[in-house]
Amino acid sequence: xxxNNNFQLTDAVVLAPLLAVLxxxxxxxxxxxxxxxxxxxGIYPRKISGLxxxxxxxxxxxxxxxxxxxxxxxxxxxxxxxxxxRSVALRxxxxxILVSGLLTWLIGRPSYHIxxxxxxxVLVSFVFFKGIIAKHFRLIALSLVVVFVYGSMIWYIFxxxxxxxxxxxxxxxxxxxxxxxITKVKVPAVKKYxxxxxxxxxxxxxxxxxxxxxxxxxxxEPEKPEENTIKITYQYKRREKDQD
Length: 244
Prior knowledge:
Elements: H1 11-34, H2 53-56, H3 64-84, H4 89-107, H5 117-134, H6 137-150, H7 166-182
């Protein structure tokens, strides 16, 4: 079923990325403030106890650097999602977290996988591919922006660097691609000019009537009033004041 989707600046466009960023920073602050370590709440592949990480792992980060690297992309991409795909934004976020987390649990190495990078890859993939599929000029432009800013992230779905969960990145990328194909959105219709419509009649176009077959401008004579028409003329006379 298609969803109505207008590009409008609403409170959700501001609140959603703010809430996302605030949640991951709050969890890290609690760890530092009370000397805790939430790494055990990450995804541990193919262990039943590791399934809880599907929900909790996006909020857990191993260092300030790790947290900072995820903060800006999460805020920017969440803003893109809510602004351009408001009607399906919550669905994409929830399904993206669950499915990408489950895929990571299935294919990941036996270690704790933590961080919001999985959902970031979901958003990058979804926003890019959905813009191409939708074929709306604004969404295609957004896809190009995502490629320009975050295109280099594609390399990290492969095991090119130690210490990162490339499995989580790959799971997020595949999940975003899947959601781009199965999620239906109704984008605003592109306004068409008269000459773009199928029933356009060139001969009756008021503008083109001012030009001959060689493209020369023609001064058209004003239309004459039809004969036998009744013309009514009103005259107004100022009433004089009564004299004594």
